[in-house]
Amino acid sequence: MQNIYTSRNKAAAVILSVMMVFTCFVFVPAGNANAASKKAPYKSGQSIKNAVFYIAVDVNNDGKITYSKDKVYYYTLAQLKAYKNTVSYHYGNHGEGETISVKGAKLSSMLKRLSGVKIKSSWIIQYAEEDAFHATTDSYKDTVAGLTDANGNGNGSGAGIAAETIIGYQGKMTYDTPDANNVNDTKYNNFTTYVEPSLLRAYRQTNSANSSVLKNFMGVVISKSGTTLTGKSGYTEQFYSDKNTSEKINEDKEVAGIPAGMKWAARPSKYTMEYAKVSKTKNTKKRNHWNGTSTVVTGSADYAKKTVKFYWTENNFFNTVVNGKTTKYVRSDLSKNSVTIPTQPTASPNKYWGYDKPMYIRYNGKWLKDIVTAGTGESVYIVNKDGTKTDITSTIGNYFVAFSQTQSKRSTNIADYNRKTVNYTYSELIDTSTAKVEASDGDADYTAVSGKTPTVITNVKSITVTKTAD
């Protein structure tokens, strides 16, 4: 099971004026009121509970943020928005030309306002996504000077242009060739509404989507060698039921975007679980002293050695009524020993499979017949929200109770490792008899769209088993 995310996505950056006669940037003191003011470094004891972004400077280049002259700067979302920067990025994305206009804060402008630190123009910027996936790859690293150098010197991607990185919160996408699958945005949308939702994204000028877009963005780390962020430092978030506090309702999430020794504001509300809400139970021992906004955690050199637990209240997800007795299920009841349909065809076995080629939708959940059965003289009905009933006694084996689906990331990106998960707010009933399984081994399979999906029944009130009427 993947992390709890729904659907729709995007992110942002900034420029810095560099006087080439200097070999370093000297930044003067800074306050937090607005983008024009100076930015002061964090001091022990200050609250960072509302921080959503950070800039960390590893001054002595020892791979940790523990040295007395190392500096960290924390930003709230409001402080990022106060920069009011907008930058457009054009790049290729799996054969499609895209332009996204991003609102946020240019990184060069942010660095210019830092106080209490000297950063050399040759020092290297590591970009910290939550999983730190790209943080150790040279083509994803820029020098400080590379943010603004018109010839592209220091832009790690080798694009030959200034990186012009922006830390963004909204984007407006347009396509070189719009079509039914690629519809131009008419307004700016928060990145929390994207297919891969995140509060912040970073964008760089690189001409390729792979290196231009950095998702689930947390911060930047600056050092002489560009090796402070290892991809293994940080902490691990765990998600538990507040009803059964030993039961996890989602897999662990490794947060590798925090350098060792640095404090961060971990918050459960950062995630959207359609089927659960952050627990309001005031048992602080079980809540890891969570204060309702965030809990401060210090990054470990090994994220597996530092855990933060958050507790969630699951919503009612699925109901059965068997001869008058109602059973209410939460999502974790369905996720235990769950299966995925359709199963992989065994002919090849095929590389891609599912419903609605090339999206290749697959469903996670349980077969209805494994949840309820009809005995002799009993009938099974789907009871809809409006009270109407459908008799499925003879076809119960066709129905699958799903808690989520997985599908291709987009019609032109069908690789299995890029599949995305769509989680449901409430169970969905899939009639598997209404569509055939489609399969292929063709990497260019997206050129033939089928649109064949099974019938999905949403918002079912209950599955009811009753004595058959005489």
Could you tell me the radius of gyration in angstroms? 25 Å
Structural class: mainly beta
Share of helix, binned: under 10%
**Strand content of the residues, in percent?**
35-45%
Number of helices: 4
Shape: globular
Mean pLDDT: 86
Give the biggest sheet. 7 strands, antiparallel
* Stretches with pLDDT under 50, minimum 5 residues: 1-33
First and last CA, distance: 45 Å
Number-wise, the strands total 32
Structure explained in plain terms:
By secondary structure, this protein is mainly beta. Helices cover 4% and strands 37% of the residues. It is built from 4 helices and 32 strands. The protein has helices spanning 77-81, 107-112, 209-212, 331-335; strands at 12-13, 24-27, 53-58, 71-75, 85-93, 96-106, 117-120, 124-129, 142-143, 166-175, 189-190, 201-203, 213-214, 217-223, 235-241, 248-255, 263-266, 276-278, 295-298, 307-314, 318-322, 325-329, 339-341, 352-354, 362-367, 378-384, 389-391, 399-407, 420-431, 438-440, 455-458, 460-467. Strands 1, 5, 6, 10, 11, 12 and 13 form a 7-stranded antiparallel sheet that branches. The longest helix is centred in the N-terminal third of the chain and has 6 residues, at 107-112. Residues 1-33 have low confidence and may be disordered.
